[in-house]
Amino acid sequence: MDKQAQLDQIAAEIVKNNVCPDLAKQAKHLVFGEGNPDASILFIGEAPGKNEDLTGRPFIGAAGKFLSEMLDSIGMGREDVYITSILKYRPPNNRDPKPEEKAEFWPYLQAQLDIIQPVLIVALGRHAANCFLPTLIISKEHGEVQQWEGWHILPLYHPAAALYNGSMKQVIKDDFAKIPSIVQSIQKNK
Q1: How many angstroms separate the CA atoms of 101 and 50, rounded?
Q2: Burial class (CB in 10 A: 0-12, 13-18, 19+), 25
Q3: What is the pTM for the complete model shown?
Q4: For the chain, which terminal residue's Cβ has fewer other Cβ atoms within 10 angstroms, N or C?
Q5: Contact 58/52 with Cβ under 8 angstroms?
C-alpha cells in the first residue's frame, strides 16, 4: 500500500472511531491534511478554521495564503510539503484546542508522521509546538531546531500572527528563510 493510501486509511479511521464526537458533529469536513506524502518537510498547525472546515483543506484562509507566500519565498509550493494540524475538526468559534481534544487526535498525528517520515517537522504556533515540546516558549525559541523522540522540530510563529501583528511578518519570514539550510544540514548529518 502506498503512503497516500495509508494516509487515507488513517483519515477513515478517525471517522470510524468517532474521534472527538462533539467537534465532528458540528464540523462540515474532516480536515486531515494534504500535500506530498513523500515530503521532507511537514507543517503542523493547531486546528482547521472556518475556510478549512468548509472545504476540507488545511491552511487555505488568510493564514494559509501567507504560508503559501512563505513557501514560495524558499522556492517551494504546497505540493512539495505536507500540511496538517493537530485537530482534524474545527473547534467552535475558532477557540483554542482543548488538551483532551489534542490527546484524542495525537495517535493519528503520530501515524501521519510515521508514514510520511519527514526530515523536518515545522510546528506552526505554540499549540502545535507544545504538543511535542510542552515547556517550549515560542517567543524565546522560535526558529531554533529542537529534538523530540528522534524528530527534528522547528517551532515557528503561526502565520496568523503576522495577520494580527504586522511587525511579526518579518520575524516569520526570517525564520522561514532558515528552512532549506536546516533540511540540508539534517540530511547531511544522517
Answers
A1: 18
A2: exposed
A3: 0.96
A4: C
A5: yes
